[in-house]
Specification:
Shape: flat
Largest sheet: none
Strand content: under 5%
Number of helices: 5
Structural class: mainly alpha
Number of domains: 1
Order of helices and strands: HHHHH
Helix content: 55-70%
Radius of gyration: 18 Å
Length: about 140
């Protein structure tokens, strides 16, 4: 969530206040911020391959084992959150062409932060899965 907030702040610093009721078309000007927005947004809702997926999966498994209706509600809430992230992405980065007199490209410092965030999210998701698999033989299987 912190990476998503940083990405939104970087966009607002360039363009001003952003509204999701119209298309902005910012992908052409800042594609790396678009990728960072999508990766951090999907990681925050528990997309597979990200660190949040392990926690979301364990939460859903526990909820389904406890009460099937709570589990279904949790799955629906996760799906709606994913749809909201994708809707925001399409609203901000696709659609109408954005015309600007100044460059909206990111600086080398911002590029370093974006690549660090993407690497940490993707790397921690893979490492978390390896850690869970290595401890799987210790847990009792019902």
């Amino acid at each position: 969530m912190g990476g998503l907030g940083l990405t939104l702040r970087a966009l607002e610093a360039r363009v001003g206040r952003l509204s999701l009721d119209r298309y902005h078309g910012l992908y052409e000007h800042c594609p790396l911020l678009a990728v960072c927005f999508l990766v951090t947004g999907l990681a925050s809702v528990g997309f597979p391959g990200a660190l949040g997926f392990v926690a979301a999966d364990l939460l859903i498994e526990g909820a389904v084992a406890s009460n099937i209706f709570i589990g279904v509600g949790l799955v629906l809430a996760t799906a709606l959150n994913g749809i909201a992230i994708l809707r925001a992405y399409f609203s901000l980065f696709t659609g109408a062409r954005h015309v600007s007199n100044v460059s909206l490209a990111i600086t080398w410092r911002e590029r370093l932060v974006v690549w660090t965030l993407i690497t940490l999210l993707a790397g921690s998701g893979v490492l978390a899965q390896l850690l869970v698999n290595s401890c799987y033989h210790v847990s009792p299987v019902p």
